[in-house]
Amino acid sequence: MNDFTAYLEEQRERVNRALERLLPEARQPEIIYEAMRYSVAAGGKRLRPILTLAAAETFGTDSGAVMEIACAVEFIHTYSLIHDDLPAMDNSDLRRGKPTCHRVFGEAVAVLAGDALLTYAFELMARYGLERGCAREALQISAELARAAGVAGMIGGQVLDLQAEGRALELEELERLDGLKTGALLQAAARCGALAAGASPAELQALSGYASRLGLAFQIVDDLLDRESTAAELGKPAGADQAQGKATYPALLGEAAARRRIDALYREALSFLDGLDRPAALLRALAERLVYRSN
Fold first, then answer.
1. d(Cα 181, Cα 235) in Å, to the nearest integer?
2. Which pTM was predicted?
3. 2-291 sits in which CATH class?
């Protein structure tokens, strides 16, 4: 576990350096570049890009060769956080322990900063394909990211989340919502790293099963932490889900049953790795860290 903790920290620092290097240089109007950089540099565990790197390593490709893909995943993730925090969405004042983008730069610039990060992720993927001579793979990866970010992924999940406020959901409805809002980008993060490494369709299918279960378990943990942790521990306001009447797993199932669901999803996620004829220790360890985390 200590070795894996060191691995995570090393990869997080690598991702941070790459994000700094790949962010566009400031031009006029400077405020939009400042807002983009502020939100990306606010921190975070960088678990999604690390999942991309780990998937590539699992399928035999050096993680350095897919760093641009990992950073594109993180740019999309950061865009989604900026927009989630807006007054029209979750109306949050705190993210990653710092004032949210719209509190620092205003709502209009925050909307545009999110848009800029989303579109820049695809510019980065186009350059990746051209510069590395892998246009077909870059096109496949771009399609994966677009699907995860769009109406069949995060945007669709966000709409369902807004529609669910203040009303009770069935478990199937809640899992569909979170499978789109949270799980879709986690799946794409894993699949994109594997695609770049030449994984077969069967291997990609197994990885999708792994990541989809992981995404649901991750969200249940998030729901529990929102109830149990402080804002200082979370880096964002605690208790926000209950205050906004959001559907959560603890509210629907009770805390004990929610924890049992986490355990079941974790075991299911690992079972998908059993069929891979690959050394999947990194993905197993990452699943444990994602699911059994304290913040």
1. 20
2. 0.94
3. mainly alpha
